[in-house]
Amino acid sequence: MSCRDTWQRVAASGAWFAGLPATFADALLSRAEPVSISAGQRLFARGEVPDGLYCVLSGVVRVTATSVSGQEALLAMLQPPQWFGEIAVFDGAPRTHDAWAQEDCELLRVPQAALLAELAERPQHWREMGQLLTQKLRITFAAVEELSLLRPTQRVAGRLLLMADGYGTWTDRSKRVLEVSQEQLGLMLALSRQTVNQSLRELQLRGCIKRRRASIEVIDVHLLRATRDGI
Question: How many Cβ atoms sit within 10 Å of the Cβ of residue 66?
Answer without folding.
Answer: 13
